[in-house]
Design a protein that fits this description.
mainly alpha, 20 helices, 0% strand
């Protein structure tokens, strides 16, 4: 019954838009806001009719945020705030400009976004990109490029929660993470051509004596920011907690929405439609229930994909698609983080679609190259979901911090060596 009401509401909205859009414009009424108002009313009615479903969904979202997201991301949020305040991001921006610009067509400061984004996962890449845009360290187009390929699923989530906790096979983590990162790096290389003739400039373009300019920029930041270390840390913690509270609110909201959509039959209808479209390609119909759920929230979708009776390759391809898409819950979080900038969300959404397709293709190719069945990867016992949540390394912050530090030091070292080699080459050339 609820599903029929929902479909009738959509049809009514379409008909209303077709016949009354001009009248609404005449009276200054926004059709999109009116449509959102109708959706909110429908949402409230369903909450009143299904209080237990709402409570269970909110409880699930709150536990996921408090047990996983908050302890995993808080150290990175604080560290990124401190590094930006202390001028390290500006230093890396100038130092690594000659490397990041020709490869990804983004400023050198994007290297820091890459380090954090590939080390800690959603949505911190978007948060730092928005900060770079506010500080004028990148153009709008550069920010859109950067945000589109530096938002990844957490490596710990893929290597531990998905491969060990859901599939009970740690070896699959290499395949899942490898396909995910290769697809996003490929996407980054493709996005360098996105609006490549953009004329906006930031004034941070690097010319000559890069190492000296990077040191001078670091010194200038230290002279301009007079806040003591205690004040810097306090501001970093305050800003980080505020951002995480906003993320927690989105997680709880979408957990409730998913439960309500499942209850009214929307998820099953969407999965039946996907099965009708893609079943001729040889995919098992039950895999699309996981994909439909992952469209809204990736954790739920990946867990359902691992529990289906479909062949392992199809399960992994579905997981790759879900992780790359990341779910509307993540998209809403990212939209809120860039709301006070001029960064547009639609390039990010298109990039997620491309990332999903590329990740599925890379999963298939890596599977064929490694031949996991012959290697016995699919014969390991499956662990329960309780193992995933209670695994000691599931929220091990040291894993993230070590990976973050190694990546950042590696990039800085590469940048310094590159600049020294350029300096030596120029001296030899002129001598």
């Amino acid at each position: 019954m609820y599903m029929i009401m929902f479909m009738l509401s959509i049809c009514t909205a379409v008909i209303f838009r077709h016949f009354f859009s001009r009248a609404l414009t005449k009276y200054g009424i926004s059709y999109s806001k009116l449509l959102w108002a109708v959706c909110v009313i429908f949402f409230i009615i369903n909450m009143i009719l299904n209080p237990k479903v709402v409570f269970d969904g909110a409880n699930m979202g709150l536990k996921a945020w408090w047990d996983i997201v908050f302890p995993s991301l808080l150290p990175f949020f604080i560290a990124s705030e401190l590094l930006m305040s202390l001028g390290i991001v500006h230093f890396m921006g100038i130092l690594l400009e000659p490397i990041m610009r020709p490869i990804f067509n983004v400023p050198g400061s994007g290297s820091f976004v890459m380090v954090v984004g590939y080390s800690s996962g959603f949505p911190i890449g978007s948060m730092i990109t928005a900060k770079l845009r506010r500080k004028g360290m990148c153009t709008r187009v550069e920010a859109e490029r950067l945000m589109s390929f530096t938002n990844n699923s957490s490596p710990l989530f893929m290597l531990v929660a998905v491969s060990v906790g859901m599939f009970g096979n740690p070896k699959l983590g290499v395949l899942i993470a490898g396909a995910h990162y290769l697809a996003n790096l490929t996407l980054g290389l493709m996005l360098r051509f996105y609006r490549k003739n953009d004329r906006e400039r930031t004034g941070n373009e690097v010319q000559g004596q890069v190492l000296r300019r990077a040191v001078n920029e670091l010194s200038l930041i230290h002279k301009e920011d007079k806040r003591p270390l205690g004040k810097l840390m306090g501001d970093a913690i305050s800003n980080s907690v505020t951002t995480l509270l906003k993320i927690g609110g989105f997680m709880i909201l979408f957990a409730v929405i998913i439960r309500l959509l499942t209850n009214i039959g929307f998820i099953s209808t969407a999965s039946n439609f996907l099965a009708f479209v893609f079943s001729p390609l040889g995919f098992e119909p039950e895999i699309f229930t996981a994909v439909a759920s992952g469209f809204f929230e990736m954790t739920i979708g990946t867990k359902l994909a691992s529990e289906t009776a479909a062949p392992l390759l199809q399960q992994l391809m579905a997981v790759s698609v879900i992780l790359a898409w990341s779910g509307l819950s993540i998209h809403a979080q990212i939209a809120s983080l860039i709301a006070d900038t001029d960064i547009r969300i639609y390039p990010f959404l298109l990039a997620r679609i491309c990332h999903s397709c590329l990740a599925a293709v890379f999963t298939f190719l890596i599977w064929k190259c490694l031949d996991p069945v012959s290697a016995g990867w699919s014969d390991l016992p499956t662990l329960t979901s309780d193992t995933m949540l209670t695994s000691s390394c599931w929220i091990n912050n040291w894993f993230f911090l070590k990976l973050f530090l190694i990546n950042m030091l590696l990039l800085i070292t590469v940048g310094i060596i590159y600049q020294l080699l350029i300096s030596v080459y120029n001296k030899l050339k002129f001598n």
